[in-house]
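Convert to structure. Protein one:
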Amino acid sequence: MSWRRNSAAACALWAAAGALAESLQEQRAALLGGLQRAHGLDAGQVAAIQDIFAGSDVLGQGNPAPTRHPATPQQCRDQLRRDGVSYEDAAFEAICGDRYMVPLYDPQAAGPQDARVCIDRFEFPNIPCEYPVVWVRAREAAQLCAAVGKRLCDAHEWEGACAGRLLPADYPFERVADMPAAQAIEAMREPHNQRWSAAPRWSYGSAPTAGLCATGSTKSEGCNGADWQRCGSNTYPGGMFPACSNALGALDLHGNAAEHMNLPTRAADMASAGGGALGHTEMKGSWFIWDAVPAHPDWCRWRAPYWHGSPVMSEDSHRNYHLGFRCCKSLP
């Protein structure tokens, strides 16, 4: 490339990019080691995760250069230790078959032993006091969940985990069967939001409360939302805000990374149905703005407009510096 030969400034940029790529690779290697230790991954799972990460130029825990995390993993561990907080739960591990998952059910009608689905307690990599994975496309999120023996959550499952009560799926598939996807999603969204707006719930209670969740970070100066070089993934360590939860026990559903989930427009697209097809992206959460400015509704069952909409398995679905995911797991 001639511009490399002719421009000293361009050469400097090239060298910096090479150093950054190496730093990202180091970040990924440490992350994979943490996954192996925390979740006991086998060689096949490790190889599958490596392949998914290798297919992206940005997938990881953020660009190390502009990122300024509000707290370190060690500060998180020290705080939880001082407060006597542990996320180990042998009973839940026996039900879910993995560490750091919680059963989803309706406490008004059942108990954790009756659950037919579990959800990660934290955002992927689902390790306490670890930064969430971001810059992830919905397709990659679904692939990473599959690599560790799980799946992407359907929207109603994520919402149930957040609201503290998993209810049966309520997608009016027959009514939107002949509509294009974007129109179908909007048609489902309006009555859904009307139904739940009378008594909205946040993961921690019935009213929005600043300071309880990982919502106090700020964007990098000059970040325009999609610039890898200028947008730091200024996330908190997962689980650093134990009060950002409810009786079911999943954390950071408000704050920290926004999260991909699956919004089906037909029954065959439900991840929980196990048929292999998936629907469209739904994204909720995120760490910036909320403690200072409520940018839009963020109660648990609120469904957003078709922002950055695409099929989950699209090759180019939306990704950015504060967008991650967590996984669900169907139980026998």
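Protein two, convert as well:
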Amino acid sequence: MEKRYQVFVSSTYQDLQEERQEVMRALLELDCIPSGMELFPAANEDQWSLIRRVIDECDYYVLIVGGRYGSIGPDGIGYTEKEYRYALSIDKPTIAFLHKNPGSIPVDKSEATDEGKEKLRAFRALIEQKLYKPWLNAAELGSVVSRSLVQLTKSTPAVGWVRANELPDRDATLELLRLRKQVDELQAELQRARTTAPQGTEDLAQGDERFEIRYSFESWTERKMAVFTASWNDVFAAVAPLMIHESSETRLRSAFDEVVYAREYVHQNQQFSHVENFRIDERDFQTIKIQLRALGLITRSEKARSVKDVDTYWTLTPYGDNLMTRFRAIKRHKE
């Protein structure tokens, strides 16, 4: 949304009309909204209450000081100084512009009384304790204000104003809040899914519980049958890396054959000199696949592929990926 800043311009009026026009022009070129007491009609409320309300509504406060102190209120303090002090008191982002050579200002635009000159001197001393920029003429003032305000908006961003038709309506805001809540809930659910077994798996065989796997192989011309047992954790850890992205069911079937061959025949049944067509039982393979799916460790891959590819593909669930990492990652050796 395009944002515009409202800027309160404070100064004495009669002696700085040309300078104020330059400042107003500079603010408009920056797409800011100038505010000043000459822009507001008479109101029922007293003048000081109106000034404070307008300053409150503005994003930034700009002070211009020339050769005059200005009109004084009932409390003996000039309205321009009161505006400046009030802006500071409410922490309004403020920047002042002081005439760099007050002695060169024409007499008709300078304080005529000693009291006025003293108040102006004290006011300038107050301003010089804070952020201010010097200026010499109206053209220079407009340029200095423009550059200074750009820097101020970057260093101290304010709320600003936007067009009403760019604001979301109530229904849109409520819908946005609903969607944001839904996103938070889904993220929390995803985090739970990564670290927690699905509900309802408590009664299923899993973990270190063991499962009998039948397998067969050919030694020369004789077909032989055998059985070995493995824990569900061992079965899953053996093939899980194949499904980090996805794996075809054919490749999983082959991987299980290789695991059983390596663990059973190579290490335990080396009395056979010739082995081929080594396979685990088809029913046991299907049982393993279904069990890993029921435990929430694997799921069918929905990735699009060629119509000629009729194989079924499997991939790890977030929970399965987390469990695989715990099983297969190499742990640090403790000394």
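The radius of gyration is 41 Å. The chain has three domains: 6-166, 170-196, 210-328.
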